[in-house]
Amino acid sequence: MAASYDGHKRTAAPIGALRQFTLKREPARSAREHCELCGEVIPTDHYHLLDLSNRTLTCACQACSLLFNKQGSGGRKYHLVPRRYLALPDFHMTDEQWDELMIPVNMVYIFRSTLAKRAVAFYPSPAGAMESLLSLESWEMLTSSNPILHEIEPDVEALLINRVRSAREHYIVPIDACYQLVGLIRVSWRGLSGGEEVWKAIEQFFADIRAKSQPVRGEPNARPEL
């Protein structure tokens, strides 16, 4: 799978294509992606399931994904990753609040972990996803200033913050988008500063996020539509 996180620390698993396990099992069919539950051929833009025990992603067809939505009967092992992208132009976060996170890069994603029973923050690095300590007080201040954060689906959605090159962008995104960001940085980073390739990749990633995102202002009922 793309990545593996236990809610507390980063594992050493490399971040590659999400179809990695399918390719290993069925190399003869590697030209196409398949549902990892039933083997059905799936499009490039497909559903993902999050295994809460090890925070890995599983590729799923539409039929299998229905077993794990809120109305499905899939149990507790997998949670369906939503597909909504929200831009938060009214998001309030001061520079002082950002500095308190002590993140060495200008990107972070924060999600509520049911295993850790708290909000956790990770930032992408050449070595993978690294956890930054997020105090309960800091998270409560953010949610108090931005009530929409209460609407984030635990484990499968994240607050994604981009402050690269003076940007001030805030989004609610599916957790697989965060895994994608970690993966592209890990694969594209060169030398001490990253190199031109990685910064172009980051720029394109956030351009895609902006294109997908629906702007949300105020305090709407922002539940995902699956």
Please describe what this structure looks like.
The protein folds into two domains: 20-80, no CATH class; 86-215, no CATH class. It has six helices and twelve strands. It has helices at 20-25, 62-65, 95-100, 136-145, 175-188, 195-212, and strands at residues 33-34, 41-42, 47-51, 56-60, 78-80, 86-87, 107-113, 118-125, 128-132, 157-162, 169-174, 214-215. The strands form three sheets. A seven-stranded mixed β-sheet has the order 9-8-7-10-11-6-12, with helices on one face. Strand 3 and strand 4 form a beta hairpin. Mean pLDDT is 82; it is low at 1-29 and 220-226.
Write the layout of secondary structure elements.
Elements: H1 20-25, E1 33-34, E2 41-42, E3 47-51, E4 56-60, H2 62-65, E5 78-80, E6 86-87, H3 95-100, E7 107-113, E8 118-125, E9 128-132, H4 136-145, E10 157-162, E11 169-174, H5 175-188, H6 195-212, E12 214-215
Parallel strand pairs: 6-12
Antiparallel strand pairs: 1-2, 3-4, 3-5, 6-11, 7-8, 7-10, 8-9, 10-11
